[in-house]
Amino acid sequence: MVLGIDLGTSNTVASTLSRDHVPLLIPDLNNKQSESTPSAILFDGKKALAGQLAQHLFELYPSKKIHRFFKRHFGTYNPVFVDEYSNPWFSETLAAILLKKVQHDASSFMPEPFSKMVLTVPAHYNDTQRKSVIEASKLADMELTAIIDEPIAAALYYSHQVEQIEDEIIMVYDFGGGTFDLTIITKSNNKIFVIAKDGISNIGGKEFDTIVADQIRNNFEMVTKRAFPDDPLLYNRLLLLSEEIKIKLNTKDEGDITKWFSFHKQIFQCHFNKADYGLKASQLIEKTEKAVQSCLRSLGMSFTDINKIILIGGTSNSYLVYDYWQKKINPDKQKLIYHQPLASVAKGAALYASSLDENANRFEAGIQLQTVSTYNIGLKSPETGQVDLVINRNTPLPVTGKIIYKINTGSSDSFAVILCQYWQKDTELQELGTIFVSGFPYSNADLLLEIGIENRANGTIAVKVKNAETGSDIRFEFKKKTLQHEFNFSEQQKLLKSVYINAV
User: Which range marks the domain in which residue 387 is found?
Assistant: First the structure.
């Protein structure tokens, strides 16, 4: 058996394949009518409650703190929170709790052991974020086989559903709960070649929630003549209520909404005008269009070159998103596909997992994927700040680039350079860490130092240092970039084992 997991910002969806290779969704055992698991963790002493149970208990006891949207913290190395025992909890550890619960549900749903497991990641994730996902799987004792970009997984499932696909250019538009991803692919049958990726890391359904939350907060302040309380628990409750209202406003046949609220012993009313909400939501959708246009320009293409647009992700469920893009397409030459936006990624991940298994059927065995580098990858001098480009963005993976530095061993016995990623030269650099090379033998001769950067098929990066003249390896240290706290795997593993996880 195989398992594909779409680890989402708002909801997590898992899928396996039936004996006849039909993708099946795995329900949250705490709510078998739901084919997704809320990406939510609630702590009650030494108990860690995940999924539907966490969300339900928070609704009953809003004074308890619930943790959501922790996926946005991947790659930051900052703790999401510090508990009452002064233990720092990181996004990787919270994700591991959720993964443990999903694996348990999957094992109960399909009692046979899983031979292959695949996790999905946003297409725009950088090296650090992808490694965070891998760390989360390790903490969850998950025997991870591979990771795959979410839009690619969705494209695989779409291919599986269509008997014959002619050569075409497809845009996978992935608007999720916390991120927006864009992937341009060329496709023929089940051969998928990614030609470009783009995305926005801080835009998704959460920003639609904020539109509603801001109105509730403003109404509170207008009625009470004082600021909304700076209380994390109260704010969590505000966001949960906002999400419920947003879902209704995102439904085409729903009209204006009037609702009473009680916050901080103050009762007040809010009227939500659907037209006003739609105007603000459209401004967010426009930001995604700008990313689309920028990506196409980098390829020397225009929107009219796209044959099909596949809408996936929870936010794409909004009629506002569908109507926005429906107005953009030429119906005679282009097609907008609304193909199971919440389920397609997980189902595609299960199909990909099966393609890696010896029992793959004809479709799965024939799957061919070719993806590209998400970022430009370069080496930056810590002294001058100059960046040397090593691997271009949107280069097919895997790819290895190298650069040679001339070191005068008579004046220096060490060398340091910063590994970084960036979209363009004028955008902010993401420093991944520093490569330190030391212990050069004293000599007046120049040493040709070759630094090789490998961008692997899964999007992670590896470093190798050689003597360019002899080809022999040179020992080096890669010191990862950290912000406030270094992620300590063994300590987080102990912390994870110290709590009881529901249904595990």
Answer: 376-456
